[in-house]
Amino acid sequence: EPEVTQTPSHQVTQMGQEVILRCVPISNHLYFYWYRQILGQKVEFLVSFYNNEISEKSEIFDDQFSVERPDGSNFTLKIRSTKLEDSAMYFCASRGQGRNSPLHFGNGTRLTVT
Amino acid sequence: AQRVTQPEKLLSVFKGAPVELKCNYSYSGSPELFWYVQYSRQRLQLLLRHISRESIKGFTADLNKGETSFHLKKPFAQEEDSAMYYCALRLQGAQKLVFGQGTRLTINP
After folding, report:
1. Per-residue pLDDT averaged across B91-108, rounded?
2. Facing residue for B43 by CB, picked from A42, A45, A106
3. CA distances from B2 to A60, A62, B50 (A)
4. Do B64 and B54 meet the contact criterion of CB atoms below 8 Å apart?
5. Are the CB atoms for B107 and B51 separated by under 8 Å?
6. 3-state class of A84 per DSSP?
7. Residues B55-90 pLDDT 10s
8. Cβ–Cβ gap A103/B100 under 8 Å
9. Among A31, A110, A107, A86, CA closest to B90
10. Is the Cβ–Cβ distance between A5 and A76 less than 8 Å?
11. Rounded to an integer, what distance in angstroms lies between the CA atom of residue A7 and that of residue A104?
């Protein structure tokens, strides 16, 4: 069964550094998402992406965050200048056409900002 | 604001006993409700959704609009049901899911 893949599984970075989290959604999917989960807290929506543009974003997704689909297969989340509070598990997800198509999640990237 | 509440962080039952994981939501519109499960060292995956009215792995959930609840039930728990369970709400016309805090279910032998 096709899967959403995320790399790396764990990223450690220093405060103030830029970080790029990578995701390869399922190949025929059209909708892409990033969620995050701070340790001990809820899974929180960050952003959704469709037709090469952001379709919805949360308050968390400020100017420090950006997403890109650079080559038709990867879907990246960039954090320009990381803060300690950005430490979290970041999940990529994708789904196909049709509102009832289920969301498929990746295994997540654990980001640790020191 | 839209909110999903799972009042139990931890739930422990014996194998063969009934299990109910509670989920309440706060939303004035027409909601779509989902249950996601995360087994140990695996990814989040969809368990079931209210529009399908299906039973997956023996689990069912009924949307009760009067009580704004979407509790997950299984009559006879099995050890392999041990996992983290998340209730989630999708708003009408929106893309995002709003998740509850999650309930860690442990089935004791």
Report:
1. 92
2. A106
3. 16, 20, 18
4. no
5. no
6. helix
7. 889 999 999 989 999 999 999 999 999 999 999 999
8. no
9. A31
10. no
11. 16
Angle at B68 between CA B34 and CA A98, to 5 degrees: 30
- pLDDT of the residue at A11: 97
Residue B54 tokens read as 């299906």
pLDDT of amino acid B6: 97
Let me know: does B35 contact B27? Beta carbons within 8 Å.
Answer: no
Please write the tens of the pLDDT for every residue from A18-65.
Answer: 999 999 999 989 999 999 999 989 999 999 999 999 999 999 999 999
Q: Is A10 on the interface with B (CB under 8 A)?
A: no
A72: left (phi over 0), alpha (psi -120 to 50) or beta: left
DSSP state of A14: -
User: What does residue B90 show for φ and ψ, rounded to 5 degrees?
Assistant: -115, 130
Residues A22, A73 contacting (CB under 8 angstroms): no
Which residues in chain A have Cβ-Cβ distances shorter than 8 Å to B43?
A: 3-4, 105-108
Q: How close does chain A come to B97, measured CA to CA in Å?
A: 7
A42 and B101: CB-CB below 8 Å?
yes
